[in-house]
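Input.
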Amino acid sequence: MESVIERIKRGSFSQFHGGIHPPEQKFLTCSKPIASAQIPEQLIIPIRQHIGQAGNVMVKVGDKVLKGQILSDCDSPMSVPIHAPTSGTITAIKSMAIPHPSGLSEACIILTPDGEDTWKQRHICPDFHSLSKTQILEKIANAGISGMGGAGFPTQVKVSTLAKIDYLIINAAECEPYITADDLLLQEHSPTILDGIKILDHLLTPKNILIGIEENKTKAISALKKATADIDHIDVCVIPTKYPSGGEKQLIQILTGQEVPSGVLPSSLGIVMQNVATCFAIADAVINDTPLIKRVVTVSGQALEKPQNIWALIGTPVGFLTDQCGYKNSQNRHLIMGGPMMGFSLPHDQVPVIKTTNCILAPSEIEIASPFSSTSSKEVECIRCGQCADVCPAQLLPQELLWSAKAKDQAQLAKLNLFDCIECGACAYVCPSQIPLVHYYRVAKAEIRQQKLLDIKAEKAKVRFEARKQRLEREKVARVEKHKKAAEARKARMNTDTSAAKSEKSAVADALARVKAKKAQASLKQNTAEGSVTSTVEMTAESVVPVAPVDESKSQVANAIARAKAKKIAQKNQAQIESLDTLQNNESLSSSQAAPVVIDKKAKVDVAIAKAKANENKPQAETISDSPNAQVDATTKALPLEIVNLASDSDDKATQALNKKAKVAAAIAKAKAKAKAKTAANLAAETSFDRAEPSTTPANIDVMQDSNTAAQADIAATKKARVAAVVAKAKAKKLAASSNKSTTSE
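Output.
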């Protein structure tokens, strides 16, 4: 069977599916030498310019930096550092628009050049063979080199593979229209590019090195063949011109005949591919100790007076380059980063050049349909012609991908292998309905990536939550075990007869005593606060507690029972007095203006009648006193001195000062006092039979009930009525004085 090298030398190449032949338009810049751009007034350097993670910023605002000085370090294999393209001062670190189809902003370092272009100290290494592979890889990583063909994959990761490499392919196809950056770089710097190829050969040790270049680059082909004439295992492969033959999978299939399966890296097939510009950057970094701070950019388009290739510093605003090339369409600016097939429109001309920028396209309105011109065509419904599927180099189904992308059906997009799309734009180029298919695919890819990031974050959060839950459970178990052991150890120590044990026992006892004392103090404070509200009423009630008369002629058992019954009645009377006073106070406080409760003349008459009735019903067996006046005097003497004085000093002046509302309150108080007296009398009558002397015969019980109990009940009722009247008068007097005082102040 004919080998790959024999077939290549014979000029026979494989073909990939689909592909198109758009107008090349390379004549605008292919015959002009590479120009050097001036240093702009401001450089905008995005921290992340590659596929992977952004590095950590190592500078701060106000720092002065030298040309080539590192600005961010790499803390992971997929992180690539950035460097200062020239000397100057860091004036800001903020979010700004980056080169991306979405037009989103990311963190950028703003560098203001000082115009001196002073280099940092460098270490030149003329012979890279004196360096070990580890040192070479370290130099490539520290130089911040990533794939410059468009993908931006970190180069040190790609060239540090441990797989056995059969073919090292150098991509010089540059198939997209207008772009000639690699073509001019090969024409002017083929020896440096060859040094980069030799360094890769030293790192990967491949069996064969294939340089794939399209047949429309005649000068570059001659320069390559001349530079590699003495190297046997390097072959310059001139392939037919067809778009997108510069794609990684497509060029591999053209040169080796192998088709890279979906989701498989070329290195697993023994193949590694590097771009021409990447080889130049590798040689410059390893030999000259120069980091990746500039690159060749094709600035082309019919809207420019001087389209050409320019050495542009990383971070140079796009508008600065177009102005140097004489951009004429200043009113309706429409700039594209990349070629017409795979490029994307820029939101403004202050977007910076990055490591993957190979072309800035400034087309005229006639040259390309612009959304600002009358020649712009609008998207219409798909007619299902199938041309997009015929030209797709990845052999996908663009129609179904479009429908699923519009429906946001991510599961179906995964089944249709959306991420195998290389975004070449061939499908959109041939679409008669003018549907921007690639734009839909880019949006769908971004949504899927975002959802994957959210899923990863959610999974990590779940793992952290479970780990925290287990940790808390372990800590709880350990804490319980620790306390248990401490208690057992303390108990064991306390059971010994040592002085330390006795001291510990006394300490525990003291602690318990302090806790008990604290609880008792809190309880005492609470009881004191509750008791202060009703202390006056309680004193009054205690002074009029009816004492059961004791008949010495009766047995001691009967006297004890009588005393118990009397105590029970006193407790009930005290509760009624407290409830009545509380209700009266609440009614007085709820009124808008304090209205004193005064016993009027009618109430006094009722009290006098109650006294007379009590005197008439005075029992003969009363043992406290022989006259009703003596009983009243005894009751009055039992009251506090202040209440008696207040009752005796009641006069008509306070009553005359009362308003209508006060009179109503007085009537309510009178009714309550009357009801209270009646209640006391009823209680005494109901319990009259309970005060009889217990006896062994029913006859004795009847005799004692008739002779003694009725008298005791009447005495108690009389005392209760008098006490209620005196208390009501005292309270009315106080409230009247308070009302007069408030009226005077008003």
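The chain has a mean pLDDT of 79.
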